[in-house]
Amino acid sequence: MQSITRVSDHEIVTFQQLTAKAKAADLVLIGEVHDKPAAHELQLSIIRSLQDHKQRMAIGLEVMQSNSQQQLDNWVSGKMTEEQFQPVFAQNWTYDWRLYREIFLFARDNKIPLVALNVPRETVIKVSRQGYKALTEEERKGLSIGTNADLNNTHTEFLKRTFQPLFESVSNGRVFQYFCEAQTLRNSGMAMTVAHYVKQQPKTKMVLLTGIWHAVKNAIPEQLDRSGNKMSSVVIMPEIQEFSGGKATTDVIDYLVQLPTP
User: What region holds the Haem-binding uptake Tiki superfamily ChaN domain (predicted)?
Assistant: First the structure.
């Protein structure tokens, strides 16, 4: 990594200063550009630095859907080989296994629990095309308790400002409101999964690895706050165009990391 900026005062800080803040937080969110290897190397570096045998830690993964938790448990416990697990990963996520492999191996080798965060894909697709109201009672029962698609949140306002013009130019008739409902559903579902896990495993530090627009403060962290599950958090992001040139603000992220170019 080339440099780390503390967004609150725009100071360049060391990796040790960054991880000291992360060690003091209950929740550490590390955003990723899914197909960028350096982003995943950053995630693993931070996870390594946070490993402390005196404090429980678990890693929450956007790449795994909640209905695959048992297979994820089997992986961590060593009941599945890499060859057996790769098809499970492919069913959950479209990006290359090799981008995430070292993180999964590190968790298994160090017995760090992995938590499947994502809402089942079929449910997300249905909401994005037909809206949350189209879900059946059975489909809603498959969501973590407390999950919602209420658009009265600051993340929806952010989506409107950032993505609505582009969405409408390429949408092929899809409804922007449904897109927002699907995003809120995912943020809320992942937040509720974190909340339920911490209730079952108190005093566990949660490290969440998700795409950038789920890790920003007005996404998963806000959904946790809205549900009454307040956790001290640190949000760490790779630098992307939307955050460059001083555009990153503390209402969105805490630390901005400039990654090496390939």
Answer: 19-224
